[in-house]
């Protein structure tokens, strides 16, 4: 039996990663700041990059402020093998979700695809409850449909659900 490893320092490598993300996000924010965010006909080319850069800056700042969890001593052999298997399974479920996204966008429309992909990721890849997965999927589908399809007028893949929704709100 091997000796347990000592507890890791909180945030060692994670803080460097957060600092790198913050630097890249600030450069991105600086680059997109001058782009037009809104025009007479709706969102401009700088709206989405600005939103993405702001989210990245906020997440990086959060990661720098809040330290990660401290891992207690672990058994090197058993936990490392379990972690590799779990990582491989999680990756496989994300691949399945991407395939569902590709096929669903062509065949099922936005709402069904958003719900399906969210359930695959939350339930199977992240191992949450069915209730959490379905709730998250419904919320994602509604936010996408209302925010992008209706308010921003983005052309989303359509099915009967999207056509019914647009008939109600337009």
Question: What is this entry, summarized?
Answer:
The protein is mainly α.
Describe what you observe in this structure.
With about 170 residues, the chain is mostly helical. The chain folds into two domains: about 1-75; about 75-165, no CATH class. It has six helices and two strands; from the N terminus they run αββααααα. It has a two-stranded antiparallel ribbon with strand order 1-2. The termini are far apart.
- For the record, the count of structural domains works out to 2
Secondary-structure-based class equals: mainly alpha
Determine the number of helices (DSSP H or I, runs of at least 4 residues). Answer: 6
The residue-averaged pLDDT reads: 82
Secondary-structure element series = HEEHHHHH
| Beta-strand proportion | under 5%
> What is the rounded Rg?
21 Å
Helix content: over 70%
Amino-to-carboxy terminus distance? 68 Å
Note the overall shape.
Answer: flat
Main β sheet profile: 2 strands, antiparallel
Strand order of the largest sheet: 1-2
Number of strands: 2
Low-confidence stretches: 7-11
